[in-house]
Amino acid sequence: MTDPSHLAGPVVKADTEYSLLRRAAFASMDAESILTAEFDADGQVVDFRFVVTNVVASQVLRRPMVELLGHTVTEVFPSSGANLVRIWAECLASGIAMLEEIQIDTDMEHPRWIRQQVLPLGDAIAVTSHDITDRRRAEADLRSLAHQDPLTELPNRRAALDGICASLERHGHGSPTTVLFVDLDRFKTVNDTFGHAGGDELLRQIAARLGSVLRAEDMVARFGGDEFVVCLDGSTPPQGVSSIIDKLVDALRVPFRIGDSDVAISASIGVATSHPDWSGTIDTANLLVHQADIAAYEAKRQGRDQVAIFDERIGHRVDRAGMIVRELRNALSEGHLEVHFQAQVHLETRRPVGLEALVRWNHPEHGLLSAGEFLPLAEDAGLTVPLGRWVRQRAMESWKRSLGSLPSNLTDKMILWFKVSPTELQSNFIAWLVADAAAAGFAHSSVGIEMEAESPEAVFAIKKQTLEELRALGFRIALTEVSVNHAGISALHSFAADVIKLERVAVTQLGESAGSTRTALLGVLSVLGSLSAELGMQLCAGGIESEAQLAPLKDHGFVSGAGDHLAPVVSEPDLVEALENMFATST
Q1: Angle ∠(549,551,556) on CA atoms, nearest 5
Q2: What are phi and psi of 120, to 5 degrees?
Q3: Can you tell me the distance from the alpha carbon of 186 to that of 194, in angstroms, rounded to the nearest whole number?
Q4: A Pfam family matched by this chain, by name (predicted)?
């Protein structure tokens, strides 16, 4: 139960005020009702009776006026009435107005969600009702989408890790949990031959075939583009694990039918088994998948269509990761890192409205590495803070130089965006950012900070204050990867940001989903659009790779976006020319 400040105030007791409320209820365009409390012999509230209501309330509550006026709440709502009485009695006793979202049985087959503003009036209450059923259903749909791969209808990466955690927790120190990492061999060849539609059909068939081999207590999930993860229940004995792996290998060796063609494909499978003392945490689940992934890489190195079991010999790749960390330290000090940029564009005009600063590593042996290939190692090695500041300083210097070659009337409102992790938002972050912006000659309003809303809730709550302080100083703030896993879309009510950036998995689903899945996703976009308008936040989407993704985003109020379909990533030397071309072709 909440106590919204805009409703708080003294209890309305005067008869004249009560009369005015009665008149206001009839004139209001909102769903207004006044109910009097019914007391038992001990003075306890046992029910509420409708004494005033209007046509709008009748429509929202799905009851004709004659069934409301003069009747008690428990008579009108047999299933949910008792709960309403309890909540309203607490409000009446406290004398404080309240805001509550509650499900009521306006229709026994399809209950409605109602948001109620309740104001105590002595021995009565005034209730303003709003039907929020569509919003609550859309949030429920997105919760389902957040854990399901739309193409194969299997659990996705997030759900896979949750399932592995559950298996580890369920069996504790008993039988180990086994994870298989299934990496399809030469899947790109199928895509090149049959197109993306053929590749998608193959993935669907593989998903179905893997599922047909497994038992009900096992789980198969799509982990990435052509990667699947299988979690075998901890009660499976070693010989049972071997038998299931053999069945999976045999099943995948049977050709698949794509159109008029038979397609033969194999998989490299890595196997990892938990230790008896491992707990059911997300870190442990990630470690188990990581070990299985390393083993799958070894299977592929051995010639594909192989199975490899993780052990210390294969674990030398982890040692190699340590070497990469040492090399990264040197790269940071010796100038082997580079800043690249990707434009954020207005979706209607295609005009650049911002730049996202990205770090790349020009490795002497492995070539240009993207951030995803080394930032996780940087986090583990404690390099995130110095690396992040280096990127911000270098990007500001580079962008300032570029501004001298571009018309100021085209660039004066562009924002330079930086992704930050919770680790970076330490006590010195604000002072550093202010100093770096001043040194480069940037107004605070020209610099934006992005933070994932997917950060663990406790961490997010702590860092929220820092972000709000930055916003008060004039810096722009964006919440990225926004999804229901951050306490639902409604959690955005508690945070003041300038931009809401939709999670990439949802953008990807826009290009892949169909039928009821797509309908549900579009419904969520609609809710997000309404919420952003209500909160005064701008909608942005990243990872836009096709027109099929772009169109529905524009239709649902998304203003800006980034992705290779709109503007590719460019290096510092190519930035000015790329922006000039974009300005020349924008409308």
Answers
A1: 105
A2: -70, 140
A3: 13
A4: EAL
Q: How many residues does the chain have?
A: 587
How many angstroms separate the CA atoms of 424 and 394, rounded?
17
Element (H, E) at 33: strand 31-39
- Give the H/E segment covering residue 114: strand 112-121
State residue 437 phi and psi, 5-degree precision: -65, -40
Could you tell me which residues are beta bridge partners of residue 356?
Answer: 342, 417
Nearest partner of 474 among 440, 500, 442, judged by Cα = 442
Considering only CA atoms, which of 277, 252, 280 is closest in space to residue 267? Answer: 252
pLDDT at 584 over 90: yes
Q: What are phi and psi of 372, to 5 degrees?
A: -65, -20
Pairing of strands 352-363, 415-419: parallel
Q: What is the pLDDT of residues 208-232, one digit of tens each?
A: 999 999 988 899 999 888 999 999 9
Q: Between vectors from CA 84 to CA 81 and to CA 90, what angle results, nearest 5°?
A: 145
Q: Give 55-63's long-range contacts (Cβ < 8 A, gap of 24+).
A: 56/28, 56/29, 56/30, 56/31, 56/32, 57/31, 57/32, 57/33, 57/129, 59/31, 60/31, 60/114, 60/129, 60/130, 60/131, 61/31, 61/104, 61/106, 61/114, 61/129, 62/106, 62/107, 62/112, 63/106
Judged on CB neighbours under 10 Å (0-12, 13-18, 19+), 333 is: exposed
Residue 490, CB half-sphere, CA atoms under 13 Å: how many? 10
- Domains and their CATH numbers in the chain: 15-131 (3.30.450.20), 151-314 (3.30.70.270), 320-585 (3.20.20.450)
